[in-house]
Amino acid sequence: MRVRLALRNKMFFFFSVVMPLGFFFLYAAVFAKGIPRAVASLLGPVLALNVMGSFWGLSATLVTFREQGILRRFHVTPATATDMLVSSILANYVLTLPTVITELLLARFVFHVPSLGNLGSVLLLVSIGTISFGSLGLVIASVTNTMQETQVLNQLLWLPLIFLSGATIPFTYLSSLVQQIALFLPATYLVSGLKRAIVDNYGPTKLLLILGSLTAWFLLTLFLSSQLFRWEPEARIARKAKLYVAATAIPFLLLGIWENKYGRVIAQEKVAVERLDEADRAERRARQKDQKPDASAPNQDDSDQKR
Amino acid sequence: MTPSVLQVENLTKRYGEVEAVRGISFQVAEGEVFGLLGPNGAGKTSTVEILEGLRDADGGSVSVCGYDPKTQSGELKHQIGAALQATALPEKLKVIEALHLFAGFYKRRRNPEDLLKRFGLVEKRTAFYGQLSGGQKQRLALAIALINDPKVVFLDEPTAGLDPQVRREIYDIIEELRRDKKTIVLTTHYIEEAERLCDRVAIVDHGQIIAQGTPRELKQASADKTRIEVRLAREESEENLRALEGVSDCRTLNGSYVLHCQRPPQAIVSLVKHLEAESNELVSLEISTPSLEDVFIELTGRRLRD
Asked: Do the Cβ atoms of B94 and A67 come closer than 8 Å?
């Protein structure tokens, strides 16, 4: 039902198809100037933006259903809170996947990216990322009462996720203090993981820490959203809700502390940027070499004069 | 004796400082249509929502189809159907999709196509929920309430907000269910609905049942009291009017005087003579046989819709 309802909603097409593809073309054609190597390095952030946006749709839908009394009608049936939440997450996943696949195909066949890296890792990260960020949306819906409140909270979360994670501003452009803060955000790992999978061909075993953290985060947020789930518009938010919501930060709090100590993400980003710069320099040198005349060949005029 | 399918004993429910349900007790037999009649805020919906498992009671005991709604809500919900006071569904959901969706929640389910025919929704099969009229939405709500062939159906204000023509269509549907011996618990603040549809009625006010019985039994308590409602040019005292020959009781109600009398002709003659003597005038006079509203007025001193 959720998939059908979404496909009949014009807003869904704009936010889940038009906007993500718009971002893709902006990144690929404008920022990367259509250069396949650059497109490949920006593909990770583009996919991450698409995946992270899951929480907007899910939180808005759940709050709307509750405000309008739709959830209340489902409450009289044997359907449980977990049924409602899991079906929301699965529907969101089914709706997100086609746009992601389209972006990968466009990168390969329109922008001629030579390799999409380890597709297994990419699909795993996209899948776990979609369901975990979707689950975040369900937690948001559990602690807000109206659409207005939901949109405010969504914005407050969205801005640091996109600006500090490397999804928009390149991670290496951020100051070192901001980079350290960003290491506590799940989005940072999603962006980094996708980049490593696409550009450096990292397999799932090399991305185990990121995949594991996102999975743990998903399970925690799903559990909490089921505990805080409210069927009725006038049902009060439990006092412990704020504490529970704060608990969703635990997996990435721990990972952030670990990352700040051992700095693998930051080091990997620096290496990736250096490699890209080196590739650019090599390409420029090759072009200059093609344009200059051959210095070792004898000058024709000098030979004629000597004779 | 028909077995009880629903037992409620000393039910209480409060919302903060407000006691919405204050010790309600009743039983419903299998195949019976039981009505909870009362004004808005009487505690009818709170009672029914507790029976449906939507809310927890604060006190008392409840058994619906042998299950406790608080501790066995999962099993109970397979046995009941409900049309809530304001059923809402997604606007872009089609009628047939709604039936299939709700059918999917239950182990036992009826054929959605049969329900479409029964509730006159075949032509609206592929219409979006948002395109339906109020009456069509309510018919769909009733169809959904029956999708699992429930043992007990709860109808909370099934005709609220509908125009009289549509209301009668819904009455016809409920009467059909009654003929099929479905056990129905109905809440309403419409007298006609309770009198027409219910085998037994409990009158609810301020969280308590103030009278309970068949509509005939309840009216029997007032049967010997024909109701005469009069408007006078000048105020009169209730005591004077009560003392008139043939009048057994008198109450003031929104500027009118409601006289209950066993011998209406004698009461009218006495009234006219009294008014002449007091140089008062009769502005209007209305005689009616007792209704459930009269029972309510007699018990509470207020109209049902005040």
From this structure: no
**Beta strands B33-37 and B59-64, pairing class:** unpaired
CA distances from B151 to A102, B67, B108, B146 (A): 50, 12, 11, 9
ipTM over 0.85: no
Domains of chain B (ranges, CATH numbers): 4-218 (3.40.50.300), 224-289 (3.30.70.100)
* C-alpha span between B299 and B210 (Å, rounded): 7
- Which tokens belong to A146? 């109206």
Interface contact A87, partner B, CB < 8 A: no
Q: Do B102 and A231 touch (CB under 8 A)?
A: no
Q: Do B87 and A231 touch (CB under 8 A)?
A: no
All residues of chain A having their beta carbon less than 8 Å from the beta carbon of residue B67 are none
Residue of chain B whose Cα is closest to the Cα of A77: B77
- Residues of B whose CB is below 8 A from A231: 54
Percent of chain A with pLDDT over 90: 38
Q: Does A78 touch chain B (CB under 8 A)?
A: yes
pTM attached to this predicted model: 0.80
Q: Residues A43-84: pLDDT tens digits?
A: 999 999 999 988 888 899 899 999 998 999 999 999 999 999
